[in-house]
Design a protein that fits this description.
The protein is an alpha+beta fold and 210 residues long. It is built from five helices and seven strands. Strands 1-2-3-7-6-5-4 form a seven-stranded antiparallel beta sheet, sandwiched between helices. β2 and β3 form a beta hairpin.
Length: 210
């Protein structure tokens, strides 16, 4: 009887180890895709942890960032995406604009959403955030331009969004999008050699609840 109990205990313990190994293997192979990306995807533009907060677990993930800049007229465009094998995406584009802060805000606050956007600012830097889109405005005079040449004001404008399923929702997703968009703005501001050469804050103030 004692030998049988011992044998059953050994079998039970072995089964537990197999189950634990199987679960661990599943987590490592099928759910850690984003964690295998570089620490700062998109040519160093964003923090991987920010993208991971938005994207659900997946077997694999890919990322890309590319800056296109016309040195003759100073215009630029930076694009970044992080995409999982499950079809979830967080992405954004940054481009040079000739727009004053007020009209820019009015345009992006009216994007067909029923819910009013959440807004935050730091000096003359502004963010307008909808449930699945975030927009950021940063004054920026591109190389080759003079501030007085602008019809309104030279700036960089960021448009970031998620596509497909997300890990978080509501206020938390809005915050992730705002962080992601602002990281794109900081990276592009430096990469595009904005003439102001100011030091942007590490992050924007936290968003108020929607």
């Amino acid at each position: 009887m004692q030998a049988r109990r011992k044998r059953n205990a050994v079998i039970a313990g072995t089964c537990c180890l197999v189950v634990i190994a199987a679960v661990f293997g599943y987590l490592e192979i099928f759910t850690r895709g984003v964690d295998r990306l570089p620490d700062r995807p998109c040519d160093g533009a964003v923090d991987r942890a920010t993208a991971a907060r938005a994207l659900p677990s997946a077997r694999s993930a890919e990322e890309r960032g590319k800056l296109r800049q016309n040195r003759s007229d100073g215009n630029f465009h930076f694009a970044c995406y992080v995409r999982t094998s499950g079809g979830s995406v967080i992405s954004g584009e940054v481009e040079s604009r000739d727009s004053a802060s007020g009209p820019w805000r009015d345009h992006y606050a009216k994007q067909g959403y029923v819910v009013d956007p959440v807004e935050v600012s730091s000096g003359d830097i502004r963010a307008v955030v909808h449930p699945d889109h975030a927009y950021v405005y940063v004054p920026c005079t591109p190389p080759g331009k003079k501030p007085g040449e602008a019809r309104n004001a030279y700036a960089l404008s960021v448009d970031a969004r998620t596509i497909g399923k997300t890990r978080v929702h509501g206020d938390e997703l809005r915050q992730v999008l705002a962080d992601f968009a602002y990281q794109l703005a900081r990276h592009t501001y430096k990469a595009a050699d904005c003439q102001e050469a100011r030091t942007l804050p590490e992050e924007l103030p936290r968003l108020p609840a929607a």
